[in-house]
């Protein structure tokens, strides 16, 4: 598999496949492809496993794209402004990720849902109770919101991260949540009640933008049902 990331802040990835090569993606991720790419949709790993993945932000069904000619091209677009990064998956390199991180991978990569061992860390942390887990063998292309910052944590070294800014981390890291201390910090600090704590050894990929933060900033500018009805009645009276 050969690929090229395009599109700047609104990225997509062009993938070139040889005859017989297959990549796997979520439903709806494909933007366009050559006519000799065959698509097949199924519940990878069975229905129960698919339902588990759905809770981690992945689609219920996965789509397999198989080339029937050398040099067949297919393009996948990210679902949010940000970055697409490559990760090589093998026995020594397994990863946990935020919801909706999975974009496309070689067919040897397994995409699963996993429940965080610490209930409160999963329920209250930025990545949610269920994470995406990537194992197996092959190349993974993952979505990261906004720009990406890579942090290499040494043994026992920790970093505290605001909710939602953890994009992906190696499975050698431990993941936990701690509450923000201090009355004024909690109610006026603007950081929320909890911070995610990641402890090394291992690499962590942080994202500068979150969908939740963007949605909150857009809410004041979105029309409400009352404003729409007023506008509609005004235009009707003018007629």
Question: Mind explaining what this structure looks like?
Answer:
- This protein has 239 residues and is α+β, with helices and mostly antiparallel strands.
- It has a single domain, classed as Double-stranded beta-helix, CATH 3.60.160.
- Helices cover 18% and strands 46% of the residues.
- The protein contains five helices and 19 strands.
- The strands form four sheets. The chain has a six-stranded antiparallel β-sheet, with no helix packed on it.
- Strand 1 and strand 2 (12-17) form a beta hairpin.
- The relative contact order is 0.15.
- Residues 182-190 have low confidence and may be disordered.
Structural shape: globular
Give the distance, in angstroms, between the N- and C-terminal Cα atoms: 60 Å
Number of domains: 1
Strand order of the largest sheet: 5-6-3-10-13-8
Would you tell me the overall average pLDDT? 81
Query: Low-confidence segments, ≥5 residues, pLDDT <50?
Result: 182-190
Largest sheet: 6 strands, antiparallel
Percent helix among the residues? Answer: 10-25%
What is the second-level CATH architecture? Answer: 4-Layer Sandwich
CATH homology superfamily name: Mitochondrial biogenesis AIM24
CATH topology: Double-stranded beta-helix
Order of helices and strands: EEEEEHEEEEEEHEEEEEEHEEHH
Please report the total strand number as a whole number. 19
CATH class: Alpha Beta
Beta-strand content bin: over 45%
> What is the count of DSSP helices, taking H or I runs of 4+ residues?
5
Name the structural class: alpha+beta
Rg for CA atoms: 21 Å
């Amino acid at each position: 598999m050969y690929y090229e990331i395009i599109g700047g802040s609104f990225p997509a990835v062009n993938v070139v496949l040889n005859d017989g090569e297959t990549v796997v993606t979520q439903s709806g991720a494909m933007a366009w492809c050559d006519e000799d790419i065959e698509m097949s949709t199924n519940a990878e790993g069975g229905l129960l496993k698919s339902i588990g993945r759905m809770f981690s932000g992945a689609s219920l069904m996965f789509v397999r794209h198989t080339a029937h000619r050398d040099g067949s091209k297919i393009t996948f677009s990210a679902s949010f402004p940000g970055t697409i990064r490559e990760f090589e998956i093998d026995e020594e390199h397994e990863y946990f990720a935020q919801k909706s991180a999975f974009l496309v991978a070689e067919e040897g990569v397994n995409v699963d849902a996993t429940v965080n061992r610490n209930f409160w860390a999963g329920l209250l942390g930025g990545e949610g109770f269920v994470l995406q887990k990537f194992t197996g063998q092959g190349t993974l292309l993952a979505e990261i919101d906004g720009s990406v910052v890579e942090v290499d944590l040494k043994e026992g070294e920790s970093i505290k991260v605001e909710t939602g800014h953890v994009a992906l981390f190696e499975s050698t890291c431990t993941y936990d949540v701690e509450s923000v201390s201090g009355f004024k910090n909690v109610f006026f600090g603007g950081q929320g009640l909890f911070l995610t704590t990641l402890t090394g050894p291992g690499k962590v990929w942080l994202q500068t933008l979150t969908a939740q933060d963007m949605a909150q900033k857009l809410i004041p500018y979105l029309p409400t049902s009352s404003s729409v009805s007023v506008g509609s009645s005004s235009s009707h009276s003018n007629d």
